[in-house]
Input
Amino acid sequence: MTDPLQNAAVDRTLRAYFLMHNLSDTAAREAHDKLVDYVALLVSAGERDLDRLTLCGLTYLRKSDGARVPSRAFTGL
Output
């Protein structure tokens, strides 16, 4: 990932997500890897707004996390 916008979106999203969730190193690496792919997809589709990329990234992680842990099921923002 060489696009500064993608790097900023991933960093910003993970900082916020890690404040809300205490993850193991393995879970944190998995969240990072999934988020990198997702943000790249959004940027390739034309999204260039850092705030929107961050919000979409948080929503994506929360939704994917809810699939594994029923108590964290996605309920919207």
The longest helix spans residues 25-44. Residues 18 and 28 are 8 Å apart (CA to CA). The chain has a mean pLDDT of 88.
